[in-house]
Amino acid sequence: MEIIPTGIASLDSLIGGGFPAGSLVLLRSEIGAGSKEFLMSSAIMTEAVKRNLIKPAETNVKVPKDMWWVTFTRAPDDILNEVAMSFERDLFELFRDGVKFRDFSEDYFKTSPVPIEWVSDRLKEAREKAALEGLSSAFASLYRATAAPATRPKTTLESLAEFLTDNATDNIVVFYTLSDLARLYSDSESRWYDFTLFLRGLQRAAKRWGGLIYLPLTARILDERQEEEISACVDGAINFQWEAAGPTRRRRVMYFQKFRGLLPRLDGAAVVKFEITITPTSGFEVARAELIEGLR
User: Fold this and answer.
1) Most CB within 10 Å of its CB: which of 47, 115, 165, 265?
2) Spatial contact of 289 and 273, defined as CB atoms under 8 Å apart
3) How many domains does the chain have?
4) What's the rounded Cα separation, in Å, for the pair 286 and 265?
């Protein structure tokens, strides 16, 4: 089995070097509990491994060619600014140089009430240019549209599928975030079925591509049934949550809910939770592991 490192040495050393190649991985997280920092730290450290600045936890691993961040509502510059404010400069530069962005916000917002100038300068400029062309051009365009066969615009899922087909092989792809995409298709049972069918197909295609696909999902944004349906479509499901660590302190923890091909090799880690720390100088780290109470 080929293994792709997360780049986070304190985690990779505990799980045999990383995650099985071809995995579709759900990161279900309470707000601020660490999934975002996990993804950012993974991108930073993966770039450091590619530059031979650090060595992976194991030698028999497959380092991805590229790391893609697919966004639906957040602008890439906004994400870069957040990383710059969260990490030391050298770590930010590794993220900036190592991550490629594909922004689907034009597809995502095109049927929404959001004004286009909020979303895309390109579409705003194109609309203003079209308005200046005058009525003659408008009538000519109307005639061409009437005479030509009607074409249905691509859905966000169709555009996303085309991108993944061309770019996911041997790479890491982050959906930032799956919550945004899922909410777009959660308004009816038929659209939700299309969404879960897409995830089923994605889980199958990921094996052929041989990379990793991360799906971060904010906990309790969807109803419980929908969260369970998403969990059933993926190879790995990891939970990030807050828990009390005394009367005045909380801590972040993560645990594996399931993981195809990984949990049998962890010698009982299915019932282990990992306490995690996040700092600007080292990013996401596993501090210690402990058995979940009641599952000893």
Assistant:
1) 47
2) yes
3) 2
4) 19
Assess whether pLDDT exceeds 50 at residue 296: no
Q: Is 285 helix (H, G, I), strand (E, B) or coil?
A: strand
CATH number of the domain residue 67 falls in: 3.40.50.300
Measured CA to CA, the distance from residue 291 to residue 253 in angstroms comes to 12
Instruction: Find the domain containing 125 and state its range.
Output: 116-152
Rounded to 10 degrees, the C-alpha dihedral 55/58/62/65 comes to -20
User: What single-letter amino acid sits at 93?
Assistant: E
Query: In angstroms, rounded to a whole number, what is the distance separating the alpha carbons of residues 139 and 130?
Result: 12
Q: Find the length of the chain.
A: 296
* pLDDT tens digit sequence for 205-247: 999 999 999 999 999 999 999 999 999 999 999 999 999 887 7
CB 83 within 8 A of CB 52: no
**Structure token digits, residue 99:** 């991550």
